Write the structure tokens for this entry.
Amino acid sequence: MTEPTDLPNAPTEAPDADAERDEVRKAIRAICAKYDVDYWRRVDAEKAYPAEFLATVGEAGYFGTLIAPEYGGLGLGAGVASVVVEEINRAGGDAAIVNAQMAICGTLERAGTEEQKQRYLPKVATGECKFLTVAATEPDSGADMSHLNSTARRDGDDWILDAQKVLISLAEVADVMILLVKTSEGATTFLLEMAEVRGRCEIRPIDLIANRMTTTLFIDGLRVPDSARLGPPGGGLKGLMGGFSVRRALAASESIGNGRFFLDRSLEHAKTRRTFDRLIGSNQGVQYPLAQAYGRLEAADLMRWDAVRLIDAKKDAGGRSALAKVLASEAAWEAARAALTTFGGWGLAGEYHIERKLRDATVFVFNNMLNSYVAERVLGLPKAF
Ligand SMILES: Cc1cc2nc3c(=O)[nH]c(=O)nc-3n(C[C@H](O)[C@H](O)[C@H](O)COP(=O)(O)OP(=O)(O)OC[C@H]3O[C@@H](n4cnc5c(N)ncnc54)[C@H](O)[C@@H]3O)c2cc1C
């Protein structure tokens, strides 16, 4: 197969790209070379946790990409983190767990006490502590996190938690989870140590299109000490929202990686597969969707770089990161369609890996709330109903 860098959709260098970012790109490619598409096909088919791959990423220190050095991390910022997840997906892997481990602890780093940060962050950076999950979504309040039914009430120095959460990723494997509930002061977050909690709550798998280890989580009268509270009572949404720009930029980068995977594979196929005595890539009906998908991915990539530039400069990246996520997820979706046109029926066969990555790409296509954010916050339109 042609080296990805020989292809015209090789990663665009950010205007401010630096040697560090290039080094990380090379290092992640080297790791991914050891875990090829057949590894990921097996993990997907078995709905398994990719433990060996994650151990290798952990040994290289990349779980700490966003964590400050004083807590054992690399402190390399969102630009580097975006390269990490992009390259994993571009190689045909699934960066969801690496993304979660790098980014979810941002809420702890911003809102946690010094004791909480010292206890967890160094172990998150190495991967020893799997910090993979925020449990926010509820049966009756999906996109709308301000209407929670799950509660925490004070009982002496402790809290009693009652929660029903749905579509929660990785609850079965996480060591620590952030739980969002309502208190008399408003939405509040707690850190749950899952080894203690798992036997005292109910976790049921949900069968989903992609391997996200998604579950429902029922907690009934769980007592936790006040030291498990993350941030002030009533400050839960603010604490979580502080990380939204990074989460969107990483989702955009994962999508760009997915889109480039579709393009890399499609270009190789279009340049080698012959029907009607000619290469299928010489047909305009195959060329144009690929050219359009390439253009959309490149445009989304520029928006991604602008978003991470703002994040790393500690400026407001709300609008830019929302646009990057919307554009990149739609560009990847377009690239998946172009791949199906290029591969024909073989695009649906597991051995070509297009159908698996197509399923991975679906989890990013929900963009209504981001479009709503752009309409209201960036364009100043009235709140929509
Ligand atoms: C793979 C995957 C993993 C997930 N992991 C987690 C997790 O770990 N933790 C967690 O808490 N949640 C998780 N979720 C849940 C995810 O955050 C929710 O799916 C999302 O918040 C929307 O909630 P909902 O699916 O109940 O949709 P609903 O809230 O029922 O909305 C349905 C549709 O209507 C649209 N909609 C709703 N209100 C508006 C509005 N005001 N304006 C415009 N459109 C609107 C939504 O955008 C959506 O497209 C996960 C979801 C998926 C698919």
Notes: Confidence is low (pLDDT under 50) at residues 1-6. The first strand starts at residue 131 and ends at 135.
